[in-house]
Amino acid sequence: MTITPKQRAALTDAVRGGTESLFRRAATAAFLWALVFTAFHFYWFAGGRFGLGDGPKMIPETGTTKDLIWAFVITSMFVVGIFLPVALTRPWGRRIPRWITVCCLWIGSALLVVRGGAGLLDTALRETGLADRGLTGLTYQQITGDAHPSLNTKVSGICIDAYFILGGLLYGRTVLLHRRLVRGADEG
């Protein structure tokens, strides 16, 4: 069976439309993920404790200038991370060179997956007894302020690590679908 040029064009448009829809949904999901992620961090910086478990030392202290600068840099990355996925879908995002947006999303994706995966591995090593100090070399006492943290604290940590991985996967999916969309436009 041969496909006419008109049928090929219709098929290409249908595939492109489906990819564009998937891309927009992925970008929106990544945006919402980053919004919730950043909101929780602002909440925690303000002293909130929901989602952190009940360990006495769950929020890192920012007592030195170095700590405050680090917190500012990290928070700035969170805020930028909110707008990156949306920048690929909105007209205002065209002012930012695409390669910058795409590179930042790839880097963000990698950092989030590595951070979440390392956290899960760290906990798994400690909980299985394979390494009392986990991957980081730190004890539970050093991390949470409690040598024997509650199940609530451990599960909270696992959920936070899994949320990091989810964000990395959403950023990665957004970039992959964007690439497919751009390649489809170049071919069409």
Automatic annotation (TrEMBL):
* Pfam families tied to this protein: DUF3995
Against InterPro entries, the record matches this protein to: DUF3995 (IPR025058)
Keyword RNA-binding among record annotations: no
Q: What is this protein called?
A: DUF3995 domain-containing protein
Species this chain originates from: Streptomyces avermitilis
Is Signal there in the keyword field? no
Upper lineage ranks? Bacteria, Bacillati, Actinomycetota, Actinomycetes, Kitasatosporales
Q: Which UniProt keywords apply?
A: Membrane, Transmembrane, Transmembrane helix
Which spans are transmembrane here? 26-46, 68-87, 99-118, 155-172
